[in-house]
Design brief:
The chain is an alpha+beta fold. It has a domain of 63 residues. Helices cover 21% and strands 18% of the residues. It contains 2 helices and 4 strands; from the N terminus they run ββββαα. The strands form 2 sheets. The protein has a two-stranded antiparallel sheet. The radius of gyration is 36 Å and the shape is rod-shaped.
Length: 102
Amino acid sequence: MVTPAKRGKGKKVKTPKTELEDGVAYAITVLAQPAGQTCSVTNGSGTIATADVTDVSVACIDDVVAPPPVPMVPIPAMSEWALILLTMLLGLMVYANRRRLF
């Protein structure tokens, strides 16, 4: 007979009410994925032998939600006037320090 080993976090586990006879193939699957989780079955299929099936397990993991993308912020460009002023300032600095440079 197939019986659940554990019931975790309020999840419902459906089991057959009748025993399966030897030689009958079985397949255990997740009927519906829980909200926000993905579940998988390990050792979920086989053929009934002379003993109970005891090695089936169901594992669920929380789905990872990617963070929203960060909006791209343009790098402000310098205006023509700012470039002219910086060029003039650099020229004045060179002029003021001409004795040290040359």
